[in-house]
Amino acid sequence: MPVFVKKLLTWGSVAFLIYFMAFRPDGAAQLFRGIGAALIAMFQGLGDFLTSLLA
To answer: What count of Cα atoms within 13 Å lies in the side-chain half-sphere of residue 24?
Structure first.
């Protein structure tokens, strides 16, 4: 992918994130809570898997 396109997509994503947080703060908070919950569930599942391997 050309460097210009990559920079354009990166800055576009940052601009959208700022816009989303500025004009829809409740929606942005719910989105980040959901992402955090998914990450916690993934790491907990990985920990359970590793625990079952060692038991």
So the answer is: 9
Q: Which amino acid is at 15?
A: A
* Chain centroid offset of residue 40 CA: 12
pLDDT in tens, 7-41: 999 999 999 999 999 999 999 999 999 999 999 99
- Can you give the pTM of this predicted structure? 0.67
Domain enclosing residue 38, as ranges: 25-55
Does residue 9 lie in a domain region?
no
Residue found by looking up tokens 């998914």 in the block: 38
Domain assignment present for 11: no
